Amino acid sequence: MTLRSIRASHLIILLAAMAFLSSCGSRRSTVYKESRGAKAAEAMANVKSKELYRFITDWSGVRYRLGGLDKSGIDCSGFALLLNKEIYGLKLPRRSKDQADVIKEKNVSQLKEGDLIFFSFGGNGIDHVGVYLNHGFFVHASTTRGVIVDDLSLPAYQRVLVKAGPVKD
């Protein structure tokens, strides 16, 4: 078994375990959370770029740390910066609000793998960034869960979504 397949297996097991362990409460809630975890695993399985897949697998679970840029802790803009540098050879500004200035904005329904997604949780402009994968899923450094694949259709994200698109040429 190769290191890549071992990491892929670990990621799928991790996502399935997270869905199972977080499924307390009613049956309806359990079915929803299990299917969300399965959909996140499916989104990872459908990543076209093997380099992107490896990068996400390698960083999955790394804890959030404001200003962080390494495996001891990373913030959302640092994660987007490193991902774009290592996978796409693109240079991004350090802060998410500055990163938002260098994209070509497009409708969320037209997003492609690698496009950036920006949010405003604080209400005073852009303060969070993620990277779109496929089927409505994106990867980001969550302040509470670290680097994770998440569902963009969740109301918590839909309410605060500001803009999205690829980095300008």
TrEMBL record:
<dbReference type="GO" id="GO:0006508">
    <property type="term" value="P:proteolysis"/>
</dbReference>
<keyword id="KW-0378">Hydrolase</keyword>
<feature type="domain" description="NlpC/P60">
    <location>
        <begin position="46"/>
        <end position="168"/>
    </location>
</feature>
<keyword id="KW-0788">Thiol protease</keyword>
<dbReference type="GO" id="GO:0008234">
    <property type="term" value="F:cysteine-type peptidase activity"/>
</dbReference>
<dbReference type="Pfam" id="PF00877">
    <property type="entry name" value="NLPC_P60"/>
</dbReference>
<dbReference type="InterPro" id="IPR052062">
    <property type="entry name" value="Murein_DD/LD_carboxypeptidase"/>
</dbReference>
<keyword id="KW-0732">Signal</keyword>
<comment type="similarity">
    <text>Belongs to the peptidase C40 family.</text>
</comment>
<protein>
    <submittedName>
        <fullName>Hydrolase</fullName>
    </submittedName>
</protein>
<dbReference type="InterPro" id="IPR000064">
    <property type="entry name" value="NLP_P60_dom"/>
</dbReference>
<keyword id="KW-0645">Protease</keyword>
<dbReference type="InterPro" id="IPR038765">
    <property type="entry name" value="Papain-like_cys_pep_sf"/>
</dbReference>
